[in-house]
Specification:
With about 325 residues, the protein is mostly helical. The protein has a domain of about 100 residues. Helix content is about 55%, strand content about 5%. It is built from 13 helices and three strands. It has a three-stranded antiparallel beta sheet with strand order 1-2-3. Helix 5 runs antiparallel to helix 6 and helix 11 runs parallel beside helix 13. It starts with 6 loop residues before the first helix and ends with a helix.
């Protein structure tokens, strides 16, 4: 027996009203963020309404809200992935309004993800979401084209498959860029002020792993150096002592790798990451945490944690 779709599924207008009502009710109960019910297109529409005459603080607040909205979207619904121009605009707006003074480290990492182009704009067909025609072996534009005012297009299957693969490769790069950034992020929450750095990193790594499982040639498995960054990114940095523990985990993990030219999650090498992590450890005065104001750190004390053990095991076994 064929199962009939539910009432809401048969009535799109009713479904939209349902989502609108619950997006207003649930936030007041503290259960879900309001951005959860929004698509990327809705996020962009809201952000584009920001007055051009707004001061920098207002612009940065609007950008932070925009990033939070994108983060809580499905990331592959209407309006996503962002076009190259839209991704570039995020960095342009961030720099133009001097948001580095108000964004947390972790929020900056989220910005790093969204500013990374995840669609190949060189091909015209990648300027908007495409759907497979149910009637022929072609790809035809969906209703999103009317929003972007893109001319009617039809792409053959080869073009669509090329688009899909290149898109996944760029998504992979975006996730690895974010994980690299989160590895040493000091602030514990993201753009929404509540989601923890470790939760953001765990989500990013889960999505990255899915891409690698689907096609390792498109999204290569992380190197040993990148695995160290991922372990640090997922670590709890909710206070200074825990942040020092994250840096210790990172340094101990990196020190076990002898290939100094090996790249991490980005092009940054093991040697460069090890040097910068050691400097951050000293800057944070981690070796003498709690020993009194002004205490300095001359060395790094290695601490073996269960997370570090699992990372080292995956590297050497």
């Amino acid at each position: 027996m064929t199962r009939r779709p539910g009432r809401l599924a048969r009535r799109p207008a009713a479904l939209k009203r349902f989502r609108t009502v619950w997006s207003e009710i649930l936030p007041s109960s503290g259960f879900f963020p309001i951005a959860l019910s929004k698509t990327c297109t809705e996020c962009k529409t809201t952000y584009s309404a920001t007055p051009k005459t707004a001061d920098d603080n207002a612009k940065c607040t609007a950008l932070s809200t925009y990033l939070t909205c994108l983060e809580t979207s499905a990331k592959d619904d209407d309006g996503c992935p962002l076009t190259g121009a839209e991704a570039s605009a995020i960095e342009t707006d961030y720099t133009g309004a001097s948001c580095s003074t108000s964004f947390t480290d972790t929020c900056i990492c989220q910005k790093t993800f969204w500013k990374t182009a995840q669609a190949t704009d060189a091909a015209t067909c990648t300027e908007a979401r495409l759907v497979k025609s149910a009637k022929s072996n072609t790809i035809t534009p969906n209703i999103f084209f009317s929003v972007l005012k893109v001319p009617s297009l039809s792409c053959d299957m080869h073009a669509y498959e090329t688009y899909t693969k290149s898109n996944d490769a760029e998504k992979c790069t975006a996730y690895k860029n974010e994980l690299h950034c989160l590895g040493t992020a000091k602030t514990s929450t993201g753009c929404d002020g509540s989601t923890t750095k470790s939760a953001i990193a765990t989500t990013a790594e889960t999505e990255r792993a899915k891409l690698t499982t689907a096609a390792a040639s498109t999204c290569p498995a992380p190197t040993s150096t990148c695995q160290c960054e991922i372990a640090a990114a997922k670590g709890d940095n909710s206070d200074s002592a825990k942040y020092c523990s994250v840096l210790t985990t990172m340094e101990t993990c990196l020190s076990a790798i002898k290939t100094t030219a090996e790249a991490g999650c980005t092009s940054t090498t093991q040697a460069t990451l090890l040097t910068s992590t050691t400097e951050m450890y000293k800057t944070e005065k981690c070796a003498n945490a709690g020993a009194g104001a002004g205490a300095g750190a001359d060395h790094v004390t290695f601490v073996v944690t269960p997370l570090l053990v699992s990372v080292l095991a995956s590297i050497f076994l």
